[in-house]
Amino acid sequence: MEALGFNMSAGFLEGVVRGYKGALLTQANYHNLTQYFRLQLSSTDYGNFLANEPLPLSTATIADKATEKLVAEFSYIRTNAVEPLATFMDYITYAYMIDNVILLTLGTLHERDTHELLERCHPLGVFDTMPALCVATNVEELYHSVLVETPLAPYFRDCLSAQDLDDLNIEIIRNSLYKSYLEDFHSFCQTLPAPTSEIMTRILAFEADRRTLNITINSFGTELSKDQRARLFPTIGRLYPEGNNALARADDVDSVIAAVDHIAEYKSFFDKAGVSSGAGANGAEEASSSLEDEFFKHDVELNKQSFLQQFQYAVFYSFVKLKEQEVRNLTWIAECIAQDAKDRVNDYISVF
Amino acid sequence: MSGTGPREAVFPTRMNLTLTKTRLKGAQTGHSLLAKKRDALTTRFRTILRKVDEAKRLMGRVLQLASFSLAEVTYTAGDIGYQVQESVRKASYTVQARQENVSGVVLPAFDGVRSKDASDFNLTGLSRGGQQIQKCRDTYVKAVGTLVELASLQTAFTILDEVIRATNRRVNAIEHVVIPRLDNTIKYINSELDEMDREEFFRLKKVQGKKKRDAEKADESRQGQNEEYRAQGGEVHRDEGIRGGDAGGADMLDQGKDDDVIF
User: According to the UniProt entry, which residue ranges have a biased composition of type Basic and acidic residues (chain B) (predicted)?
Assistant: First the structure.
């Protein structure tokens, strides 16, 4: 029944997004790119976006330019969006906002000039009142201005006090915020009509699980206590609750594998990544990069699937994620070419 | 003539000759010692040169690996540069200098020390790419280690180079300047002494000749006086002295053996 009214408000934008999606680089494009980077790029949707850049091109420039393009496309859709799509798209930007606010907090904590940091912020997470945060000279002020000025206020209010900003490790703060954000986004998606909520639940569940697993694996051998760790796990996803509980108690990679045993996909990641029970800690370190790759692959897969259904908002989210992956791929290929590492150049994750 | 080369401004005396000979001997010992030192240093220098070459090649490879692992981090975790910079509180990798002695040359040697509590940013990338960041960090620590080693070798290389140059200069100076000069001085003194000997000999001859001539003259004039005196009717006596006369001129010491002297 949703399909009836969908095109009234969002039909045009869905069309635009699908058009953008069609312009994503394909396997053949990537293959050619690995051979002749710049030449091939100009024949894709990226056109002559590098035309005015002075030589020599750095990979950072390429990444910047590609991100710029993503932001341009995103903001075009955002300006044309009406409720509830507008709110949905705002939610997408919150993730980047968290990163930006954390960056500014970091600057304030170390008493740096935060105005310089504005340039380093992710453009998708820029909000109008962000420069106002730079006025804050101490953490207390920053905390209050975050509460007043940003849409992130509920997340901050829920999980942090002004003291926490001072005391806690910045990474813990970031992950607590992200946890609240994921949960909030998830509950917002539940209010949306059927196809959107189903697909977004799937994607967000995976995102949450991925974070849970990563936090668990990465916190081995650090000063992060198990209690703290458990508090960072999002309370959504397929691992919640009993998987999360098991992970909270996990001491090594083996127990992580045991915890995800009942979910076939995740188990296969570990199998593919080659983190076998006998490999021990060293094996885990060796293989974790490919575990990360497996996560990326699955992420891309899920986002691709969301395009299979019409009349829902998940395409917008998926488009941003896929585009982001594409920017990463471009950077990777450029980096490989710049560093003359031709054997690793094919390790990107092709989108289409 | 010897002594045409440069020589020291000394008086050609026997004492100076002895002195200069001692100095020549010292210079020769010094020369051979310095030459040995030079050879030792050169051997060391060659070893270091080879090590520098190896270290530089290794550095190229390691740094390439390191910057590639950074690329991996950027791929998975995004730009973490600022975060890492800010969360560092104290250096986790420090360099300690110690001294090494090679044939009397003090070479500084550097050791990289990785402090134990270097976990300042191990929560970075907690949710994404944490493992890559740790790996990248380890790779970079290794790269820095290589750099430190290279720095130590490079410093030793420069210092040794300078010292070898100085030693070479000294060896050459002794060989080509000091020793020839001392040689020349010795030859000069010798020739001067010879010259003085000859002069002295000639002078003595001259004096002897003069004395002889004077004696003859005196004898002649005395004969003349005697003649004159005799012609006036005087009598000329020889001075007999003690035991003069006929017995005069006998050897006072050779009067036969005394009976009471046993030997």
Answer: 213-243, 254-263
Q: What is the Cα–Cα distance from A59 to B71, expressed in whole angstroms? A: 10
Half-sphere exposure of B245 (CA within 13 A, CB side): 3
pLDDT of residue A182 exceeding 50 = yes
B residues 81-140 lying closer than 8 A (beta carbon) to A: 82-83, 86-87, 119, 122-132, 134-135
ipTM: 0.75
What is the DSSP secondary-structure string of A176-193? HHHHHHHHHHHHHHHHS-
Separation of alpha carbons B132 and B134, rounded Å: 5
In chain B, what residues touch A219 (CB-CB under 8 Å)?
123, 126, 130
Q: What is the pLDDT of residue A142?
A: 76
Q: How many CB pairs under 8 A join A and B?
A: 91
Query: Does the beta carbon of A175 lie under 8 angstroms from any beta carbon of chain B?
Result: yes
Q: Give every CB contact of residue B216 below 8 A, 6+ residues apart in sequence.
A: none
* Contact in structure between B167 and B37 (CB atoms under 8 Å): yes
* 8-state DSSP, B100: E
Residues of chain B with pLDDT under 70: 1-4, 116-125, 127, 238-258, 261-263
Q: Which residues of A242-264 are buried (b: 16+ CB within 10 A; e: fewer)?
A: ebbebbbebeebbebbebbeeee
Pick from A289, A293, A339, A344 the residue to mutate for testing the B interface (most B CBs within 10 Å): A289
pLDDT tens readout for residues A138-174: 777 777 777 777 777 788 777 766 666 666 677 788 8
pTM exceeds 0.80: no
CB atoms within 10 A of CB A281: 11
Cβ A165 vs Cβ A109: under 8 Å = yes
Tens digit of pLDDT for each residue in B68-124? 888 888 887 777 777 777 777 777 788 888 888 877 788 888 888 877 665 555 566
**Would you call B140 helix, strand, or coil by DSSP?**
helix
**Collapsed DSSP state (helix, strand, coil) of residue B52:** helix
Please state the φ and ψ torsions of residue A315, each to the nearest 5 degrees: -60, -35
Nearest to B130 among A169, A172, A214 (CB): A214
Q: Determine the angle formed by the axes of helices A194-219 and A314-338, rounding to 10 degrees.
A: 40
Find where tokens 């002895």 sit: B18
Other beta carbons within 10 Å of B174: 20
A331 part of contact set with chain B, CB < 8 Å: yes
C-alpha span between A188 and A277 (Å, rounded) = 39
pLDDT in tens, A332-347: 888 887 777 777 777 7
Contact between residue B121 and residue B87 where contact means Cβ atoms under 8 Å apart: yes
